User: Fold these one by one.
Assistant:
Number 1:
Amino acid sequence: MNGILDTLTFAVRFVIRDTRGAWARFLWFGVLLGTSLAVLIASQGAVSSLRASIRACARELVGGDIVITSKKPIPAEIASRFGQHKAFEERLRTMVRSSTAAQLAQLRAVDDEYPLFGSIEVVPKSTAWRSAGVALERTLMDRLGVKVGDQVEVLGISLTVAAELVSAPGDISAAYVVAPRLYISRSMLPSGILSARGSMVDYSLFLKLERVNHVDETAAQLRSQLDPATFTVDTAVKRTERLSLVVSSIGSLASTVSLATMTLALLAITLAIRFHLRSKRPVAAVLRATGATMQQIRLCFFLQTSLLGVLAAILGVLGGLALYEVLVSIARTSTELRITESFDPMIIGASVGFMVLSLLWAAAPPLHHISSTSAFAVLRSDLEGPPQPALQRRFDLCVRLLSGFSILVLAWLLLGADKSAAILLGGAASTIATSVSLAWGARWSAKWVGEYVDYFPLRCALRNLHRPGNQTLAVVSSIALALSLLCAVSVVESTLGTLRGIGTDYGEANVFLYELFPEQTTLATRVIEKHGGRALQQLPVVLMRLQAIKGTPISEILRTDGTDTPPRWALTREYWTSYRDHLIPNERITGGQWFDGPLLNGEPVPVSLEDALAERLGVSIGDTLEWDVQGLSVLTRVTSIRDILWERFERNSFVVFPSGVLEEAPQFLFWSLSLRDPGARSAFIREISAVAPNVSVIDLTLVVNEVLSVLSTIGIGLKLLLGIIAFTATGLLAITALGARAERAPELMLLARIGMRRSIKRSIVRFEFLLLGVLATMCGIGFGLGVGWSIAYWALHVPANFNWLSITALSLASLVSCWAAGRLVSS
Amino acid sequence: MSGCDYVLSFNSVGKSFRSGQSDIQALKNVSLQIAAGETVALVGPSGSGKSTLLSLGAGLELPDTGTIVLDGNELSSLNEDDRSILRNRVIGFVYQNFQLLPTFTALENVALPLEILGGARFSSIRRRALSALEEVGLSARIDHYPAQLSGGEQQRVAVARALVTHPKLILADEPTGNLDRANTQTVLSLMRELSSRHGASVVLVTHDEEVAATMGRKVQLRDGILT
C-alpha cells in the first residue's frame, strides 16, 4: 500500500514540476480542447432539453389529446360523442385590411373551449379579446400599421383589434412568415361565412380524453370510422414527434459541427502530445537511469495527460453550461416553446467521457513509445531518438484504429444511435479519411517534384516534407480539414445569401395574386395598370385530389401500412394543377415526352408530373393516375416527368395537364406582378383586396424581409461556427509550429555547425511551411468547394454560389498563417 | 577476492546492435570485475564499446551472451522493474551532458532518486538532497533551474544526484567531457572524495589520459574487446 502511495506521490510531484515549466502551453491546450467540449455539451444539452420539453408539453403544444383535421366540416355525430371535451378550429388564408394597408393572414376561428390544453397568450393578458374582437400577431399588426383598439376588416366584417397574440398552441412562429396569424372567436363570425369558401378552409376538431392511456385506442377507432382520404386523425404525441424531428435535425447539425471542431482540437492535441512526449524522451531516460520503474514513468505521463483532460473538462463544462443557457434562451424566444426541462447531467458525463477517451487515444501510442524506448539510446543520442521499430508502429496503428472505432461508436451513441447518426458519422469519417488521403498524395507528389528542383533551399524543404517522422501528413490533413469546413460553410452561407435576391433578381416579380377568378381579370388588370404595375406571369389553377394510383383507390392505399406506401400528405392533399402546352423557364423534362399530339377520345389524358412527386407516389412513365376534379373523375397517364427549380419565384405545378381538358373546370388564376414603388404597391394591395375580397395577395418584399431576418440569425450561427473552426485551426498550427521549433532546434544547430548560413536555414524552414500551406490549401479548398456544392445541390436544392472573394481570402489566410508558422519555427 | 566482494562483475559478456541491415558487435566476450571501493577508468577510442559496457552494468540493456552480476544480483534473471529498483539503490549515474531535468530545480533534481525510491517523507528527502548539494558546494543555488547554472555547476548537481542515495557504484560516462580544465579538476576531486567518503566504487569512461590517471585502475577497451 505504501509502495502505491509513494509511486502516486512521486508521479504527482513530477507532473507539477514538469508542467510548471510550460504552464502557458498547457493552458492553451486546455482552452483548445475545452472550447470544443463546450460546443458539444451546449449543443447536446440544448437539443435534449428541447426534445424533453416537447415531450413534456405535447398536449399543450397541440391543444388536445387527439386532433381530427379535414377540408370538410367534421361530422356532428363524431363531435357529439365527446361531450364538453372538444373544441373546434377553422383555418382560412384571407386578406385582412386596415385603413392604410392590406395583408394576407391566416385566420383561425376557435371555440371558447379552445385550447383544451395550454393557452392562447395575448397582451393585454385577458380573455376579453374573444368577445371584443380579434387577436393579431405582432408581425401582422406591424404590416397593417394597427395597434390594439384599431379596426381591421376581415371577410368583409369590421372588427376591433382586441389584443396582440404572443403565442398559441400549434406550430412555431417561424411558420407564419407569409401569412401571420389572426385569432377570432367562432361566435364573432356570421354562420356559414367560412363554409362558403369551400376547400380553402381547414377544419380541426380537438378532443380531450378522460383517460390518457386510451388515446391510441380512440385514435385507431376514429380512423376506422372516418374516410382516410378525407379525415386525418392525429394524436398529440404523433404530432409533436414531427416537431422533435426538426429539433433532431438541428441537433444532428450542431453535433456534427461540434464533433468536427473536436476532431480538429484532437488533431491539435495529438500533435501536441506527440511533440511533448517526444521531447520528454530524455526525461524518461533520466528517470529510468535513476531507477524509476516503467509503471512510475507511465503513471507520470498518464497523469499529465489526464490533468490536461481535467483542465479541459472543467473549462468545457463551465463554458458548455454558459453556452447552453444562451442557446436555450434563443430557443425560448424564437420558438414559443416553454423550455422547463433542466440540463441532463448525463450529457456532461458522456461528453467528458468522449473527450477523455479521445485524449487517451491521442496519448496512448506516444506514451507507449516513450516508455519502451531504450534509455541508453536516448541518453547517448544528440539529435533524435532511435526510430520506432516496425512492430511497434503496427501496434500503434492497431491501438489507434481500435480506439478510433470506439470513439466513433461513442459519438454514434451521443448523436442518437440511429441511422441518421450513422450517416453523419460516416460522412465525418469519410471527410477525415479524404483529408488524410489528399495529404498522403500531396506528400508523395512533393517527393517526386523535389527531384526536379535545383534551388537548394526549396529542394531541402521539399525533401523535409516526406522525411521520416515529419508532421506533413498530420498538418496538411488537419489544416485541409479545417479549410474544407471553412470553405464549405462559406459556400453554404453564400448560397443562402443568394436568397436575398429573391423578388428583385427574377423578372422583377414582387407581388403574387392567388385565387383570382377568370371573370375578375379585367378588373384586376385595370387596378394593376392604375398603380403602374404589370403582370409577368398568368397561370390557370384547377384544384383536384387523387382518387387512384395505377388503379388502386387512395382509400385502400391509405389503409395499408407498408414501408413503400406513399406519404399521407401526397395522397390526401389538394393539388393546384395547371394546364398549358409549353414548358416554362424553371423546369426541364427528365423523363418521357412533353405533350406533342392531339388528345384521343377514350384514352387516358396525358399529364406531366414533378420528379420528386412521381418518386413519392411510386409512379413512372406510362402509369395511370385518377383524379377527382371538383366531383368529376378524370383518368390520366403519366407521359413526362419534370425537374422544377422551385427556388425561382415562378409559379409551377406538381401536375400539368395539356390544353383542351380543364378549360371548363372551376378554376382561378395565379398572377405574378411587378410593382416597384412601395407606396403604389401598398395602395394596389389595399384596392385589389377591396374590389376582389376573395383574392389573396402576397407582398414578396415583406416576406423577403422576414426571410432575411431568419437568414441573418442563421448567418450569425454560421459566423460563430467559422470563428470556432478558425480558432481551433489556428491553435493547431500554433501547436505544430511550437512543437516543430523545439524539435528542429538541435537540427538547425547542427546545420550551423557544418557551415550552413543562417539565411539558408531560414529559407528552408519557411519554404517547408509555405509548401505545407500550399498543399493544405489546395486539398482543403478543393475538397471544401466540393462539399459546399454538394450541400447546396443535395440538401438545399439550389445551385451553389461561390463567394470567390471569401475563398481567396481563406486561401491567402491559410498561406500567410503557414508562412508565419515557418517564421516562428526558424526564429 | 571472492565473487561476493565484487560490486559489479561482467562474465564473458557479448552484445550486438542492429544497424540497418547489419549487426554491429559492440562487445565481445568481456570479463571485468569491479571491487567495492575500487575506482576504474574505462578508456578506449570512440565506438570501442565503453558506453555500452556502462549501460549493461547499469541494467539499462541486457547482454546477448554471458552474465552480469550487480551487487550479488544476476541482471538477466531480473525483470525490468526489478532492475530499475536495483539501479536506484545501488548505482549513481553521471553523464557528459549532465542530463538534468530542465523544469526541476537543483534541489528537485538531486531529490529525484530518493523520491523514486519512496518510503520517506519529503522533509527527510529534502534534508538529504540539501546535504548532498552542500557536499558539492551548491547549497546557495538549490532553487536554481539547470538553465540558470554554469556547466560546472550543472555537473556538480549531477554528481550530488548520483551520490544522494549513497550508492555502492558510480557510473560516469565522460563526466568531464563538456567541462573546462578547472571544472574538470573540481568535479573529479569531488567524485573521488565523496565516493571514498561513502565507500562507493567508481567506473569512469573517458578519452582523457589525465583523467584516467586519477583513477585506481585503468582498463582499455578496443573494438569491443578488453585489452
Number 2:
Amino acid sequence: MDNLKAIVESLLFASDTPLTIDKIKSILETADRKTVREALTSLAEEYESGKRGFFLAEVAGGFQVRTRPEYRQWIRRLKETRPARLSRAALETLAIIAYKQPVLRSDVEYLRGVDSGGTLRTLFERRLIRVMGRKDLPGRPMIYGTTKQFLELFDLKDLNELPALKDLKDLGETWPNDSR
Amino acid sequence: MTEQPQDMSAYQVDLGDLFDGPMDLLVHLVKKNEVDIYDIPIALITQQYVEYLEWMKSLNIDVAGDFLVMAATLAHIKSRMLLPTQEEEGDDEDPRMEIIRPLAEYLQLKYAAEDLMERDRLDWDVFVRRDFDGTEAWSEEEPGGLIQVGLFELIDAFQEIIKRVSPAYLWDLTPDTISVKSRISQIADILEERGSVTFQELFEAPATRVDIIVTFLAILEMAKFQLIRIMQHLESGIIRIFNG
C-alpha cells in the first residue's frame, strides 16, 4: 500500500481513543506490525519537523494525535468549559492506587490514615480506577487498580512509565508543594 | 480557644474525607517545627497534635475518629519511649518507627501525586478530537507561584487573625450575627464579582469573634464542596481565595 501512512493518519484523526498497533493492523488487514510501526514513527517525525499544532503521543498502550501543550490556552478558549478538578484528597488516593496496585481499600486508608470511601467513589465515577477482583479474605474486599483513562489523563504509555518514587533522604529540606 | 459562643454550637462542620486527614496534620507539624522526619521529637509533636484537635473541636469542626486514633497512637509511642529499654531484648526497635514508617511512605506518595499533576494532562494541557463533559468555565490564566493551601495552614492563618482582633470586639456576642449559610452566599457574591479575594480581606471590617469564626467555617464548607480554591503565594505568603 503506497498510501499506508496516509491511511494510518486518517485512522488516528478519526479515532477518539488511542489506537494500538494491533488495532490498526487488523483494520488494514494486510500490513504487519513492523510496517504499521514504521508508518507511525514516520508520522511522528513529520509532525515534529513540520512544527505542527499537534503531535503523536504514545499513551495507554496506543497512539493518539494530541494538541501540543504549548497551545493549551487557545484550545481552552475553543472548549470554553473545563473538566472537573481532582481534589487534593482524590489525587493522593489516585497516586496511592497507581503505585500500590493491586490494592485494597484498607491499604489505601492505612496509608492516608483516613476513611477513603468518598474519594474512591469519585475516582470510580470518573473511571480513573476500577475493581480488579476480590481478595480471598473475610468480607471478600475489592481490589482496586487504575484504568486506561488514568494512563490517558496523565500522558503515560503504561504503568512502568510512572515516575519513580523519590527517596525522601535525597530530598532534604524540600516538602511537597514547595518544589514549584 | 477557651470559651465558645452559645449560638455557634448549632453549626457542625463535617469535613468528610475530602479534606486533609491526620497524616496531613503530622506532615504539617513536622514541617512547621523543621524537624527530621526520621528523628521526630515525639513529645512535642504529640502535644501540638492534640492542641490542633482541641482547636478544631472548639470550632465545631467534626473531628473524625481517624484523628483520635492517630492521637492515641502518638500517646502510646510517647509512653513506650519513656519506658526503660531492657538490655536483654537488645534488638528493640525505636517505638517511633511505628509512625515514621507510614509517614515516610505517605510523604513519598504525596510527592508522586504532585509529579502526576506536573505531566501534560489530557483535557488540560493537551487535547484530542472529542467532547468532554466540561463543568465550569476556564478561569483566567492562573498566576504563577501559587500553591494549594491545606487545612492546617489555614488554621494557622486563622489563629493569626483571631490574635489580632481588638479586645473590644472579642467578646461582643451580639445576637444578630450572621449564620454560616448566609456568610457562604456573601462570599460567593464577592467571588462572583471579583473572581478572587484575599483570606485577610474576608475578616476585615469591624468583626466580632463570632463573625470571624462564622467566616472561617464558611470558607471550610466552600472548600469542601469545591466552590472555592484556596491558594497561597509562595513568596509573599498571602492566602487568596479563588472562585471554583
